[in-house]
Amino acid sequence: MDPSVVIALGLLLCISCLLLISSWKKGFGRGKLPPGPVPLPIIGNILQLDLKNIPESLCKLAKEYGPVFTLQLGVERVIVLHGYKAVKEALIDHGDMFADRGHVPILKVSNGFGIGISNGERWKHLRRFCLMTLRNFGMGKRSMEELIQEEAKYLVEELKKTEGLPCDPTFILGCAPCNVICSFIFQKHFEYKDQKFLYLMKLLVENIKILSSQWIQVYNSFPSLVHYLPGSHHKAIKNFDFLHEFILEEVKEHQRTLDPSNPRDFIDCFLMKMEQEKQQPQFAFTIENLVHTVADLFIAGTETTSTTLRYGLLILLKHPEITGKLHEEIDRVIGRNRSPCMEDRNKMPYTNAVVHEIQRYIDLAPTNLPHAASEDVQFRQYLLPKGTTIVPVLSSVLYDDEEFPNPDQFDPGHFLDESGNFKKSDYFMPFSAGKRICAGEGLARMELFLFFTTILQNFTLKSPIDPKDIDTTPTASGLAKLPPSFELYFLPS
């Protein structure tokens, strides 16, 4: 055998052994971990996962190893939680112990800044500030509702411009929630044809596709190796950098025009907090944290809602009988002469159930962003060392067949009782649960109800193809489940 080949194989074997020893030492004497499949050197259990549909792979493994099991992804050990009981026990019952954010290499561009992936006291201060500022600017109040109603009118006018011709709704549906979050963050409203606005929308759509791809699952398992290879991760990082630069320019403009007696938006409030805290040993309120927190709010406040709207319309095209019942309830409760409002929701159990079923059925964030143990945790009969990555499989909760009979079927009856009244469910976790539950949950719920009802109040939806031939299978199932591309007619009612 060629000596160079022998040397290469020897080096590979040595590296494999070192990685295994390093991984073993991390857990040695520090915990009793749940069972799981035997990992291979270097690659761990990645071959036992279908990278096209990781949630389904995790559900299959749970049948063999139970609701709490261990996976090795590269050199990182991950604890998977499957089913309502395990997820609730960790995220809600022991919320403080699992409140840290797990390691997400592709999001390392944030360097631990922002509300999304920060931990410890920094995260607590930022989350508390974000929730307080959202409330002060009207989240869950009439002022925010009026803002969404106004944006819904812009959306209707933009949809009318399609003149009943088939169109791909991706960008139009993205603009509405993006403008809502921009009003809160920047006090800006962009025209739907504004080129900078459209470019930002393009970056968001592009990045959610990249972050949900198979390649990023590989990147997150082997970041130190894959980072230097060509691939879409470079494009994602570049897009993040552009967004951060855009936000930094907005921050600088706000610094020049700030009036402390009249804060206009989230950035103004953050800048004022920075001034108040400059003598305090708090490291949460810095320019870096401002930029990355705004980016987190901007991305989460735009892409999750717009994807849900888009996926929801595709499902309604697939089920015209359900859409017909929605039109009947909207006509009966709201009519055609006023805008829908949140007070209507309590009188519209079927519409409320459909919106909930859309969120359950599409299962937008199937594995959520990973959590991590903030301390050594005794969880069931296991001892999980501090820093252990925790993956709660939200799919296993949203698709629980005891709570939601025939979960693979789209059925608003999952959220209706025998009398046709709306029925709440503790298993409804599209926004996650516990300490890390989505900070904008209230805003998103309001947007989804008002945007869906306003669209259906003004338009009849029609598919260019037979509803029976519509495929609602997601095209990606990584960070998010994304709907296939489609076109539809918005026919004025």
UniProtKB/TrEMBL annotation:
Q: Which family does it belong to?
A: Belongs to the cytochrome P450 family.
PANTHER family attached to this UniProt entry: CYTOCHROME P450 2C9 (PTHR24300:SF400), CYTOCHROME P450 508A4-RELATED (PTHR24300)
Q: Which domain of life is it from?
A: Eukaryota
- Show the GO MF annotations: heme binding; iron ion binding; oxidoreductase activity, acting on paired donors, with incorporation or reduction of molecular oxygen, reduced flavin or flavoprotein as one donor, and incorporation of one atom of oxygen
Q: Where in the cell is it found?
A: Endoplasmic reticulum membrane; Microsome membrane
UniProt-annotated binding residues for heme = C438
Sorted alphabetically, which InterPro entries does this protein's record hold?
Cyt_P450, Cyt_P450_CS, Cyt_P450_E_grp-I, Cyt_P450_E_grp-I_CYP2A-like, Cyt_P450_sf, Cytochrome_P450_fam2
Question: What are the required cofactors?
Answer: heme
The protein's name is: Cytochrome P450
TM spans, by residue?
6-24
Q: Which PROSITE patterns match?
A: CYTOCHROME_P450
The record's principal subcellular location, in a coarse class, is endoplasmic reticulum
Known catalysed reaction(s)? an organic molecule + reduced [NADPH--hemoprotein reductase] + O2 = an alcohol + oxidized [NADPH--hemoprotein reductase] + H2O + H(+)
GO CC, sorted alphabetically, is: endoplasmic reticulum membrane
Q: What is its EC number?
A: 1.14.14.1
Name the UniProt key words of this record, in alphabetical order: Endoplasmic reticulum, Heme, Iron, Membrane, Metal-binding, Microsome, Monooxygenase, Oxidoreductase, Transmembrane, Transmembrane helix
Provide the function of this protein: Cytochromes P450 are a group of heme-thiolate monooxygenases.
One biological process term from GO is:
xenobiotic metabolic process
